Amino acid sequence: MSNMYDWADYYDLTQRGLNGDVEYYMDQAKQAGGKVLELGCGTGRITLPLAQAGISVTGLDLSQKMLDRAKAKAEELGVADSVRLLQGDMRSFDLGETYSLIMIPFRSFLHLLHIQEQMKALACIRKHLAPGGKFAMNVFVPKIQHFYEENEKMSLRGTHRMENGDEVAMWDYTRYDHFQQLAEVTRIYERSNAAGVMTERVTGRFTLRYIFPTELHHLLRLNGFKVTQRYGSFAKTAFDASSSELILVAEAL
């Protein structure tokens, strides 16, 4: 079984982000008025629009296959010379410069599976923040009802049409370990042609460590950050009990 991030083309097709997230992070980058670092940049869904807008942006990701896809897209968009795409680990990077904005969009912080890893990443982030710099991120809000509904069940996450007319269905089988706060996901991509015949079926796996809002606030404070903005959507609505997403901006203490 492969790592889900080995399938960069299917990832691009099926992972379109959250409503308004590109615009939100674009606005944060423009407000920052300096260099931007995106951790877990993947295939460049957010990094490349920033580069197109003339923002000095660096993208860092652990997966070389995702970065290769991002570099190809950068060439297609004509921004290959104005964006840095680096292979690296958000727990241990050292880029030798500071940034006005460091961001971890699309819940990528949840790939850190232990508190020690989370703390190492936050230490690296704080080290790379310019004076007055900001750290922006978003994570989903754990819901007990969703745990019950999804645990050890196969769920269809959506179907997506390719340019050649083929259709890709994305399925997830999720198993929760609530003691460790882990969600272990087996993801299956099923590709069918126009006649409805399945032509490819690939399976990957990834694990997330979900984090509760109060826990994340304490973690940031413990690592030298103060939360300055908190939203429940990328339209900057208030975060409350009904919110499914937690969107934070923090600064160094």
From TrEMBL:
GO biological process, one term: methylation
Keywords: Methyltransferase, Transferase
Cross-referenced InterPro entries: Methyltransf_25, SAM-dependent_MTases_sf
Pfam families: Methyltransf_25 (PF13649)
Annotated Methyltransferase domain residues: 36-133
PANTHER family, per the entry: TRANS-ACONITATE 2-METHYLTRANSFERASE, TRANS-ACONITATE 2-METHYLTRANSFERASE-RELATED
Protein known as: Class I SAM-dependent methyltransferase
Organism: Brevibacillus nitrificans
Lineage of the species this protein comes from: Bacteria, Bacillati, Bacillota, Bacilli, Bacillales
